[in-house]
């Protein structure tokens, strides 16, 4: 083994689990030195109830490990305790009363500890200066994800009931102000380090719409982070109050963000809310500026309402598309139908799909969710994404 070329040794180390890397490093000085850099995963994953920002700061100060980190995932998931209490009751409804009470008592006792830890460590992500200092040393970071929808309680010691109730969407808390502020602070920290960081991919799975209503000077600073992106995935949560107050402004600023990355190749836009969101102002901005993405290859649109003409104009305007998905699963309970589809206010899906297929050279064209035509009466509810050509007969009212 010690006579193997360095390239083969690296190939071996890349395919070993962490415990095996630790074991092989103990066999010789050569393996110990070579395996050192593989002790740390290139993907850093933080949880709200752990001191992970302290750990990331320590990594950033290490000359050996700071260049190892390539992607960051910040899990800021929190529990809506009001709904969580109801959900735990219903999940344990069939148990004997004494067993149910005992299980719930133990569950909330464990959760209280986790909550206390979250309240200690999660506020650290509001510290823009500290985030900027950390990112300044992580110059190989290319991928950042922020999630509030992924369960943060996946350790073996965490209560299994927490994972069960997390599958019910009402359990997942969305503190709109703090979620907006944390994402803003993170992007401000990235923007101050664009000379050393080349961010290629950015994702947020439930970003409040009010993020796009901030002051113009701040919007300019934040949009600079998008300049080198090749992949962007945003799920935007829209609430009638207060978002109706800056509906037009929000879409104007969203367009500014979207037109900044000139090399964008993959875009996913999802809108979450009580009803499908009319995104006509966004389509109008693209049309008024005569803008289309220069090299966009993949496009996914979910949870929107639009007219056939404006939706068609936007999609066929992206001439480089080879992958298109219309609709998605949405935000739903396990036993509810998919609700992330499209509401077509005018026109028909039949003519929309035919126009798309005749105008673009698509390799993949998928549809999913609740697709409803207000005028035409067309209707599908598709639990899984299916090729457009495999759609069954139109279900009409």
Summed up, what is this model?
With 397 residues, the protein is of the alpha/beta class.
Q: Which whole number gives the mean pLDDT?
A: 91
Q: List unreliable stretches of 5+ residues.
A: none
Instruction: Count every helix, treating DSSP H or I runs of 4 or more residues as helices.
Output: 15
> What is the helix fraction of residues, given as a range?
25-40%
The biggest sheet, with number of strands, parallel, antiparallel or mixed sense and barrel status, is: 14 strands, mixed
What would you call the shape? globular
**CA-based gyration radius:** 24 Å
The secondary-structure class comes to alpha/beta
Q: Distance between the terminal alpha carbons, to the nearest Å? A: 70 Å
Query: What fraction of the residues are assigned to beta strands by DSSP?
Result: 15-25%
Describe this structure in words.
This protein is α/β, with parallel strands linked by helices. Helix content is 39%, strand content 21%. The protein contains 15 helices and 16 strands. The chain has helices spanning 6-14, 18-25, 29-35, 52-60, 81-91, 97-121, 128-137, 160-166, 176-191, 216-223, 240-243, 247-259, 280-288, 308-316, 349-359, and strands at residues 43-46, 71-75, 78-79, 143-147, 172-173, 201-208, 231-237, 266-272, 277-278, 298-302, 304-307, 323-326, 342-346, 364-373, 378-387, 395-396. Strands 1, 2, 4, 6, 7, 8, 9, 10, 11, 12, 13, 14, 15 and 16 form a 14-stranded mixed β-sheet that branches. The relative contact order is 0.07.
């Amino acid at each position: 083994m010690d006579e193997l070329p360095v390239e083969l040794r690296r190939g071996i180390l890349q395919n070993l689990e962490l415990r095996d890397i630790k074991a092989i490093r103990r066999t010789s000085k050569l393996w110990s030195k070579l395996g050192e850099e593989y002790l740390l995963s290139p993907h850093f994953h933080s949880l709200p109830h752990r001191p992970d920002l302290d750990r990331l700061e320590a990594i950033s100060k290490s000359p050996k490990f700071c260049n190892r980190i390539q992607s960051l995932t910040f899990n800021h998931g929190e529990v809506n305790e009001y709904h969580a209490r109801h959900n735990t009751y219903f999940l344990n409804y069939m148990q004997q009363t004494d067993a149910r009470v005992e299980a719930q008592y133990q569950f909330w006792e464990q959760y209280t500890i986790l909550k206390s830890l979250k309240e200690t460590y999660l506020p650290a992500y509001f510290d823009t200066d500290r985030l900027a200092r950390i990112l300044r040393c992580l110059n190989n970071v290319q991928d950042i994800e922020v999630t509030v929808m992924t369960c943060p309680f996946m350790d073996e010691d965490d209560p299994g009931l927490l994972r069960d109730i997390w599958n019910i969407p009402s359990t997942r808390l969305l503190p709109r102000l703090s979620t907006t502020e944390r994402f803003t602070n993170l992007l401000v920290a990235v923007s101050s380090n664009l000379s050393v960081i080349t961010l290629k991919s950015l994702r947020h799975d439930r970003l409040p719409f009010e993020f796009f209503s901030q002051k113009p000077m701040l919007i300019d600073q934040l949009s600079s982070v998008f300049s080198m992106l090749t992949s962007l995935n945003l799920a935007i949560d829209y609430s009638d109050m207060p978002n109706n107050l800056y509906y037009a402004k929000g879409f104007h600023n969203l367009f500014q963000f979207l037109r900044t990355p000139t090399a964008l190749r993959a875009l996913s836009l999802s809108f979450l809310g009580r009803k499908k969101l009319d995104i006509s102002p966004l389509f109008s901005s693209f049309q008024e500026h005569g803008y289309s993405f220069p090299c966009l290859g993949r496009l996914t649109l979910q949870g929107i309402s639009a007219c056939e003409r404006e939706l068609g104009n936007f999609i066929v305007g992206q001439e480089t598309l080879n992958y298109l998905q219309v609709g998605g699963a949405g935000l739903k309970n396990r036993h509810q139908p998919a609700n992330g589809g499209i509401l077509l206010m005018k026109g028909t899906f039949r003519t929309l799909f035919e126009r798309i297929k005749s105008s673009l050279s698509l390799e993949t064209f998928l549809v999913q969710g609740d697709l409803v035509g207000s005028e035409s009466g067309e209707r599908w509810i598709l639990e899984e994404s299916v090729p457009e050509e495999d759609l069954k007969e139109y279900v009409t009212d």
